Amino acid sequence: MTATFPDLHLPPRLLAPDATPADLAVHQRRYGPLSHGDPETLLRTVAESGLTGRGGAGFPTYRKLVSVAEAGRRTGRAPVVVANGAEGEPASHKDKALLRLSPHLVLDGLQLAARTVGAGEAYLAVEDGVTWLESALAQRTADPLPVKVVRLPRSFLSGQAAALARYVSGGAALPTHQRPPVRERGVHRAPTLVQNVETLAHLALVARYGAGWYRTAGTPTQPGSALCTLHVPGREPRVVEAPYGLPLGRLVPLEGARAVLVGGYHGTWIPAPEAARLGLDGSCLGAGVLAVLPVDRCGLAETARVLRYLALQSAGRCGPCLNGLPRIATAFRTLAAPGPQGTVRADLARWSGLVEGRGACHHPDGTVRLVRSALTAFAAEADAHARGHCTATDHTPLLPVPEED
Ligand SMILES: Cc1cc2nc3c(=O)[nH]c(=O)nc-3n(C[C@H](O)[C@H](O)[C@H](O)COP(=O)(O)O)c2cc1C
Ligand code: SF4
Hints:
Layout: E1 2-3, H1 24-31, H2 39-49, H3 61-75, E2 80-85, H4 94-101, H5 103-117, E3 121-126, H6 130-138, E4 147-151, H7 161-168, E5 192-196, H8 197-214, E6 225-231, E7 238-243, E8 257-262, E9 268-271, H9 272-275, E10 289-294, H10 299-313, H11 319-336, H12 344-355, H13 363-377, H14 379-386
Parallel strand pairs: 1-7, 2-3, 2-5, 3-4, 6-10
Antiparallel strand pairs: 6-7, 8-9, 8-10
Helix pairs in contact: 2-3, 2-5, 2-8, 5-8, 10-11, 10-13, 11-12, 11-13, 12-13
């Protein structure tokens, strides 16, 4: 994996232009001093910037900071802040790249978020890189709040906010029926701010340079830039930073493509001609993955492999995951194989409706999003399969799916 910053997009923000890890001295030279200011001023700046979460849902960061701070005041308990570096999505590398290249930007953001909500504890949760991050932390002797690095188990679900809060509290890294939500009662039952590491890095820059600067990238409705992991067949996956609104065709080659998977395994397949008319859209960018499917590959087969993985990753506790996702994955495997399909497409549509919105977490919803988009984007391929043949000529698996245990 390489991390690059194509110079056509915007001057470097989060990643070093030379893709070398920045220690604290380099970081301070590059970005200048961080003023901790007063929380009210920072909250106003974050609101004006329009910063949204980069962990998948694109939730306004300002609103989350305010609600955790309020929950802290209401309950009389100092909130906890967790920097979410889990990156459970197998096709995403952006958070690991950011933590490797610019750890101090994330740690600056973590301190700022902690101060803004009045936190008494701070954690950085990651799947790997613990030693590297602990040495980065050891350099930061002036930080007001100590940060504990937590190593998470490798799983698609461990970065879900409730799973994360539970794991940091000493439980299993599995989502729960979370009532009240984590922002009210999370780690050790205290109000908890879970914020993606990329969001925290942007926060550190918004605090330094202001809302106006942040808005010089992106569009008026979607200001800023985002880290994306690009998958182009025949090339190493690449992490780049791009402004919202940038035409997708400037990020990935669309000629000779059948479709692009936007957002990752909870994302959306978009046919290449349609993708060529779209810009980078924060509302559907999910984990920031863009994966090109060439015309010689089968989108149904790729989706079937991912669905099997997603079904196996589910905690299998709620009905939708226990019954729905395995059935959907099995039915999709039938669709992916040329031959009689029976009622499989109607079954998939019906089961998708049945699982949607019924899980304790959004895992079923994200999975159904992928299913529906594949049924639409690859409708012609599904027709060809029903007639007994596949238009793909290369059946080598493309999207990264971890091996089953
Ligand atoms: C199944 C599932 C897996 C998730 N995995 C991650 C993850 O690996 N990293 C992450 O930052 N957010 C992940 N999220 C989103 C988190 O629950 C949470 O919304 C996010 O960390 C909030 O940070 P943000 O507001 O900065 O985006 C996941 C959500 C779901 C439903
Ligand atoms: S919806 Fe699925 S993944 Fe989410 S908590 Fe329920 S069983 Fe677990």
